[in-house]
Amino acid sequence: MNILFVCRGNVFRSLSAEYCLKKYLESVNIKEIGVFSAGIEAIQQPVPRFILNQLSKLEIDASGHKQTKLEKEHLIEADLIVSMGINHKKYIERNFNYPSYLFNEICYGKITSVLDIHDAVPGWESRVKESRNHMKWTINYIHSSMPYFLENYKNFVFKLRNSTRL
């Protein structure tokens, strides 16, 4: 079983989801699920130190993360594709003809995005405090959602296996 998380740059939301799920799976002694992440743009950039520090506070080490650009091979390898935002879901459907499910849809039954910094904090580059608060909140939200994700993800794998590609 392989789960793929997708966002835009693969340095914030999908990265956080990947490492939070890996940590949660380890804590409940589940070893048969592989977890990875990618970004639809993934312009080469380092993971912001603030994000690594926030994950570290949750005892999650993502310092070895390598940013990955989404390719069709990643989708082929995945049993479940999880989009962090509605725009990622649409991109995957339009460009690769693959279905995916939203993170919030799997965890909470909501067709909503986990917002990126630029969506949640207009003018985020000059609003450092608000940007950091959003990043911290988002990482904690993703982390605290993992029990719900694990409880519900099989329903979405079942849907994928019983449907054809788009």
Automatic annotation (TrEMBL):
Protein name: Phosphotyrosine protein phosphatase I domain-containing protein
InterPro entries xref list: Ptyr_pPase, Ptyr_pPase_sf
Superkingdom of source: Bacteria
Organism: Candidatus Staskawiczbacteria bacterium RIFCSPLOWO2_01_FULL_33_9
Ranges for domain Phosphotyrosine protein phosphatase I: 1-120
